[in-house]
Amino acid sequence: VTHSIPACIGSMTINGKQLDSESPVSIFAVNKCYETVQDGTFFDGSGFAALVREGYKVRSDVNISLEFRTTAAHGALLGVSSAKVDAIGLEIVHGKVLFHVNNGAGRITATYEPRGTNSLCDGKWHKLQANKSKHRISLIIDGNLVHTDNPYTQSTSADTNNPIYVGGYPADVKQNCLTSKSSFRGCLRNLVFTKGQHTELFDFSRAFDLRGVFPHSCPGAEH
Protein backbone atom coordinates (compact mmCIF):
# COMPACT_ATOMS: atom_id res chain seq x y z
CA VAL A 1 0.00 0.00 0.00
CA THR A 2 1.57 3.26 -1.11
CA HIS A 3 -1.16 5.78 -0.34
CA SER A 4 -2.05 7.43 2.96
CA ILE A 5 -5.08 6.53 5.03
CA PRO A 6 -7.88 9.12 5.31
CA ALA A 7 -8.43 8.72 9.04
CA CYS A 8 -7.69 10.02 12.51
CA ILE A 9 -5.10 8.25 14.61
CA GLY A 10 -4.54 9.03 18.28
CA SER A 11 -2.89 7.78 21.48
CA MET A 12 -0.26 5.68 19.75
CA THR A 13 2.24 3.92 21.99
CA ILE A 14 5.36 1.97 20.99
CA ASN A 15 6.89 -0.33 23.62
CA GLY A 16 4.67 1.29 26.23
CA LYS A 17 5.92 4.82 25.39
CA GLN A 18 3.34 7.27 24.10
CA LEU A 19 4.36 9.08 20.91
CA ASP A 20 4.30 12.87 21.03
CA SER A 21 2.06 13.87 18.12
CA GLU A 22 1.99 17.53 19.18
CA SER A 23 5.60 18.29 18.20
CA PRO A 24 6.66 15.86 15.44
CA VAL A 25 10.13 15.96 13.88
CA SER A 26 8.50 16.38 10.47
CA ILE A 27 4.93 16.52 9.18
CA PHE A 28 3.36 16.39 5.71
CA ALA A 29 -0.32 16.76 4.76
CA VAL A 30 -1.57 15.91 8.25
CA ASN A 31 -4.43 18.02 9.53
CA LYS A 32 -6.01 18.10 12.94
CA CYS A 33 -8.94 15.77 13.58
CA TYR A 34 -12.43 17.13 14.02
CA GLU A 35 -15.13 15.72 16.24
CA THR A 36 -17.67 16.11 13.45
CA VAL A 37 -16.72 15.79 9.80
CA GLN A 38 -18.49 15.96 6.46
CA ASP A 39 -17.59 14.55 3.07
CA GLY A 40 -15.69 17.01 0.95
CA THR A 41 -12.31 18.68 0.61
CA PHE A 42 -11.10 21.28 3.11
CA PHE A 43 -9.12 24.29 1.82
CA ASP A 44 -7.36 26.13 4.66
CA GLY A 45 -7.05 29.43 2.76
CA SER A 46 -3.32 29.19 2.07
CA GLY A 47 -3.02 27.18 -1.12
CA PHE A 48 -4.69 25.33 -3.98
CA ALA A 49 -5.21 21.99 -5.70
CA ALA A 50 -3.85 21.40 -9.21
CA LEU A 51 -5.62 18.88 -11.45
CA VAL A 52 -4.92 17.60 -15.00
CA ARG A 53 -1.15 18.11 -15.24
CA GLU A 54 -1.16 17.79 -19.04
CA GLY A 55 -3.65 20.68 -19.35
CA TYR A 56 -7.44 20.90 -19.65
CA LYS A 57 -8.95 21.99 -22.96
CA VAL A 58 -12.17 23.94 -22.40
CA ARG A 59 -12.75 24.77 -26.09
CA SER A 60 -16.35 25.62 -27.08
CA ASP A 61 -18.52 23.95 -24.42
CA VAL A 62 -18.20 22.98 -20.78
CA ASN A 63 -20.55 22.67 -17.82
CA ILE A 64 -18.98 22.88 -14.37
CA SER A 65 -20.82 21.99 -11.19
CA LEU A 66 -19.66 21.97 -7.58
CA GLU A 67 -20.84 22.60 -4.04
CA PHE A 68 -19.05 24.99 -1.69
CA ARG A 69 -19.32 26.32 1.81
CA THR A 70 -17.33 29.17 3.26
CA THR A 71 -17.47 32.02 5.75
CA ALA A 72 -15.07 34.17 3.68
CA ALA A 73 -16.31 36.87 1.28
CA HIS A 74 -13.36 36.42 -1.12
CA GLY A 75 -11.64 33.47 -2.71
CA ALA A 76 -10.69 31.87 -6.02
CA LEU A 77 -12.82 28.79 -6.71
CA LEU A 78 -11.40 27.57 -10.00
CA GLY A 79 -9.34 28.70 -12.98
CA VAL A 80 -8.22 27.21 -16.28
CA SER A 81 -6.00 29.44 -18.39
CA SER A 82 -3.67 29.46 -21.37
CA ALA A 83 -0.46 31.21 -22.31
CA LYS A 84 -2.60 33.59 -24.39
CA VAL A 85 -5.75 35.36 -23.10
CA ASP A 86 -8.11 32.38 -23.45
CA ALA A 87 -9.32 31.26 -20.01
CA ILE A 88 -12.23 30.60 -17.69
CA GLY A 89 -12.48 31.45 -13.97
CA LEU A 90 -14.87 31.13 -11.04
CA GLU A 91 -14.41 33.22 -7.91
CA ILE A 92 -16.11 34.78 -4.90
CA VAL A 93 -15.56 38.53 -4.64
CA HIS A 94 -17.32 40.63 -1.97
CA GLY A 95 -19.73 37.73 -1.38
CA LYS A 96 -20.74 37.57 -5.07
CA VAL A 97 -19.95 34.67 -7.41
CA LEU A 98 -18.30 35.64 -10.70
CA PHE A 99 -17.90 33.39 -13.76
CA HIS A 100 -15.43 34.84 -16.26
CA VAL A 101 -14.81 33.54 -19.78
CA ASN A 102 -12.39 34.78 -22.45
CA ASN A 103 -12.67 33.06 -25.82
CA GLY A 104 -9.83 35.22 -27.14
CA ALA A 105 -11.75 38.40 -28.03
CA GLY A 106 -12.27 39.75 -24.49
CA ARG A 107 -13.39 38.76 -21.02
CA ILE A 108 -17.09 38.51 -20.24
CA THR A 109 -18.53 37.91 -16.78
CA ALA A 110 -21.73 36.48 -15.35
CA THR A 111 -22.24 37.77 -11.79
CA TYR A 112 -24.52 36.28 -9.16
CA GLU A 113 -25.28 38.80 -6.43
CA PRO A 114 -27.16 37.33 -3.46
CA ARG A 115 -29.87 39.35 -1.73
CA GLY A 116 -28.01 39.47 1.58
CA THR A 117 -24.31 40.39 1.45
CA ASN A 118 -23.21 37.34 3.45
CA SER A 119 -25.85 34.89 2.31
CA LEU A 120 -23.37 32.79 0.27
CA CYS A 121 -20.69 33.06 2.95
CA ASP A 122 -22.81 31.66 5.78
CA GLY A 123 -20.88 28.39 6.26
CA LYS A 124 -23.70 26.38 4.63
CA TRP A 125 -23.49 24.33 1.44
CA HIS A 126 -24.36 26.11 -1.82
CA LYS A 127 -24.69 24.53 -5.25
CA LEU A 128 -22.99 26.20 -8.20
CA GLN A 129 -23.29 25.44 -11.89
CA ALA A 130 -21.35 27.37 -14.55
CA ASN A 131 -22.08 26.77 -18.22
CA LYS A 132 -20.18 27.90 -21.29
CA SER A 133 -21.81 27.08 -24.61
CA LYS A 134 -19.79 28.67 -27.44
CA HIS A 135 -20.10 32.46 -26.80
CA ARG A 136 -22.93 32.12 -24.25
CA ILE A 137 -22.25 31.84 -20.51
CA SER A 138 -24.53 31.34 -17.54
CA LEU A 139 -24.32 30.75 -13.81
CA ILE A 140 -26.81 28.96 -11.58
CA ILE A 141 -26.43 29.34 -7.80
CA ASP A 142 -28.87 27.42 -5.60
CA GLY A 143 -31.27 27.23 -8.56
CA ASN A 144 -31.07 30.96 -9.44
CA LEU A 145 -30.01 31.57 -13.05
CA VAL A 146 -27.88 34.50 -14.26
CA HIS A 147 -26.65 34.91 -17.82
CA THR A 148 -24.89 37.70 -19.61
CA ASP A 149 -24.80 39.13 -23.13
CA ASN A 150 -21.59 38.54 -25.03
CA PRO A 151 -20.71 41.15 -27.67
CA TYR A 152 -18.03 38.84 -29.09
CA THR A 153 -20.35 36.37 -30.83
CA GLN A 154 -17.79 35.25 -33.45
CA SER A 155 -15.34 34.04 -30.81
CA THR A 156 -16.60 30.72 -29.41
CA SER A 157 -13.66 28.61 -28.19
CA ALA A 158 -11.51 29.04 -25.05
CA ASP A 159 -8.30 27.38 -26.20
CA THR A 160 -6.88 26.56 -22.79
CA ASN A 161 -4.04 24.11 -22.22
CA ASN A 162 -3.06 24.63 -18.57
CA PRO A 163 -4.01 22.60 -15.47
CA ILE A 164 -7.25 23.21 -13.57
CA TYR A 165 -6.34 25.17 -10.43
CA VAL A 166 -8.92 24.91 -7.66
CA GLY A 167 -9.14 27.11 -4.56
CA GLY A 168 -6.21 29.31 -5.62
CA TYR A 169 -3.10 29.10 -7.79
CA PRO A 170 0.69 29.42 -7.49
CA ALA A 171 2.19 32.92 -7.47
CA ASP A 172 4.15 32.27 -10.69
CA VAL A 173 1.10 31.05 -12.64
CA LYS A 174 -0.95 33.52 -14.70
CA GLN A 175 -4.75 33.23 -14.54
CA ASN A 176 -6.36 35.42 -17.18
CA CYS A 177 -9.90 34.98 -15.84
CA LEU A 178 -9.37 35.39 -12.09
CA THR A 179 -9.13 38.78 -10.38
CA SER A 180 -8.84 37.50 -6.80
CA LYS A 181 -5.43 36.69 -5.36
CA SER A 182 -7.09 35.22 -2.24
CA SER A 183 -7.09 31.45 -1.84
CA PHE A 184 -10.44 29.90 -0.98
CA ARG A 185 -11.04 28.98 2.65
CA GLY A 186 -13.80 26.47 3.22
CA CYS A 187 -14.99 23.19 1.76
CA LEU A 188 -15.71 21.98 -1.76
CA ARG A 189 -17.33 18.76 -2.95
CA ASN A 190 -18.72 17.10 -6.09
CA LEU A 191 -16.59 18.98 -8.64
CA VAL A 192 -17.81 17.75 -12.04
CA PHE A 193 -16.89 18.88 -15.57
CA THR A 194 -19.31 17.79 -18.32
CA LYS A 195 -18.66 18.05 -22.06
CA GLY A 196 -21.44 16.61 -24.17
CA GLN A 197 -21.86 13.00 -23.03
CA HIS A 198 -18.53 12.94 -21.16
CA THR A 199 -18.73 13.60 -17.40
CA GLU A 200 -15.67 13.78 -15.16
CA LEU A 201 -15.86 13.85 -11.35
CA PHE A 202 -12.56 15.14 -9.95
CA ASP A 203 -11.06 13.39 -6.93
CA PHE A 204 -8.85 15.86 -5.04
CA SER A 205 -6.76 13.06 -3.55
CA ARG A 206 -5.51 12.47 -7.12
CA ALA A 207 -4.38 16.09 -7.63
CA PHE A 208 -0.75 16.38 -8.78
CA ASP A 209 -0.16 19.30 -6.43
CA LEU A 210 -1.98 19.99 -3.14
CA ARG A 211 -1.02 22.86 -0.83
CA GLY A 212 -3.11 23.65 2.22
CA VAL A 213 -5.79 21.24 0.94
CA PHE A 214 -7.08 18.19 2.80
CA PRO A 215 -8.96 15.99 0.35
CA HIS A 216 -10.87 13.52 2.51
CA SER A 217 -12.89 15.49 5.04
CA CYS A 218 -14.26 18.86 6.06
CA PRO A 219 -14.64 20.00 9.64
CA GLY A 220 -18.32 19.83 10.59
CA ALA A 221 -18.26 23.51 11.53
CA GLU A 222 -15.74 26.32 11.24
CA HIS A 223 -13.42 26.62 14.23
UniProtKB/TrEMBL annotation:
Residues 38-218 form the Laminin G domain. SUPFAM superfamilies: Concanavalin A-like lectins/glucanases. PROSITE patterns: LAM_G_DOMAIN. The lineage of its organism: Eukaryota, Metazoa, Chordata, Craniata, Vertebrata. This is LAMA1 protein. Gene3D superfamilies: 2.60.120.200. It comes from the Eukaryota. Pfam families: Laminin_G_2.
